[in-house]
Design a protein that fits this description.
single chain; 213 residues; alpha/beta; eight-stranded mixed β-sheet; globular; NAD(P)-bd_dom_sf; SDR family oxidoreductase; NAD(P)-bd_dom
Amino acid sequence: MTNVLILGAHGQIAQLARKQLIHDTNAALTLFLRNAGRIKDVDTARETVIDGDATDVAGLTAAMAGIDIVYANLGNRGIEAQAKAVVAAMDAAGVKRLIWISTLGIYDEVPGAFGKWNHDQLDGGYLEPYTAAAAVIEASDLAYTIIRPAWLSNKSVVDYELTEKGEPFKGTEVSRQSVADLVVKLIEDPTAHVRASLGVDQPNTDGPKPSFY
């Protein structure tokens, strides 16, 4: 049985991944989040809930006891501090495998008109903390996979393609369900895409902006 710690477990992608993990795998899940009472439908046979702060190294380290894989679904302007805390806690706990959700544009890798639109939309200090957080992860000795999704939709579809760091980003959008599916696939095969940073988009969604804008 694989023991998975989900940081930011109330996030939309995290909730989708959690449901898929319970349905499709035998993984045991530790759900780590602020205000843990927001998680209502706990499978007590396979899920443990921890109310915690992702900048609290001691709390994170304690939550990582017996954990095989950390899946971090964090996101706000404090994400660099969270990245530093997660790396420190994983080092202290001796956990190596990390799946880290980031965002597109952190390497200025989005080309063309969509790249300009994306940069304009995220201007004002949004991208910089995500870029800094990714640099913290990449400078660690962890077996990480960074995931950089396109603009997210709630479409009920699993359809995605990947680009590597250094390659131009493809597409403009992707479903949260697709990103959750990628997370689950990485948990099922922890040796895949180690020390990689993956752009994720739905094929054939090229254009100047996502379809829902």
